[in-house]
Amino acid sequence: MPAAGDTVALGWIGRPHGVRGLVWARAYTAQPEDIAAYGALMTGDGRRLEAEVERVKGAEVVLRISGVTDRDQAAALTGQEVRVSRSALPEAAAEEFYHHDLIGLAAVATSGEAVGRVVAVHDFGAGSVLEIDGAGSGGLFVPFTADAVPEVDIEGGRLVVAPLPGLLDGGDPDELEEDAGTRNDGD
User: Which of 32, 79, 154, 183 gives 20 to 30 Å between its CA and that of 165?
Assistant: First the structure.
């Protein structure tokens, strides 16, 4: 099994589906059905799983895993994160990034001042958001857009965060609410 740094998480296995060994899985891939497209999946405890997608529902898929034939065997996989070797994935296109590559990058302001380090990438349904630790008193959540993050340098180990109003300056929340209201009033 490759070292942890040489693998990328593609999802995790949830509850069993039915009595014939199928499992629900949450896919982290852009297309949920791609969770099984890069070869055998590896679990944290070293198991190799040959999986086939049976059905897709949103970001969840039903997987048939070779050798898993009943509900008890499927239940034993519940909660397992599944990974593949980094070398099994295609190269990211220009201006596209694997979340795995963004985590750990230093975040700096356009002025060069250190902001923190990317600790996670989230997608709550409206686009990716970078979680940056070490930003003042707590974490900072930055939308992963060209306006908010104008530069990403994977090889250099850093990304640049733009000083959007209220993002880095701790702007007045009341001012931001007033501005937001004027944009939505239809004038």
Answer: 154
pLDDT of residue 161: 94
- Residue 96 tokens read as 């596209």
CATH superfamily label, 4-88: RimM (2.40.30.60)
Strand runs (DSSP E) across 28-175, as ranges?
41-43, 48-49, 51-57, 60-65, 81-85, 106-109, 114-123, 128-135, 138-143, 151-153, 158-161
Q: How far apart are the two ends of the chain, measured CA to CA in Å?
A: 60
- The DSSP string of 66-103 is TT--SHHHHHTTTT-EEEEEGGGSPPPPTT---HHHHT
What's the fold here for domain 99-169? Answer: SH3 type barrels. (2.30.30)
For the chain, give every domain's residue range.
Answer: 4-88, 99-169
Residue 27 parent element (H or E):
strand 22-27
pLDDT at position 26 over 80? yes
Q: What is the pLDDT of residue 182?
A: 33
Mean pLDDT of the region 124-142? 80
Spatial distance between the Cα atoms of 64 and 5, rounded to a whole number of angstroms: 27
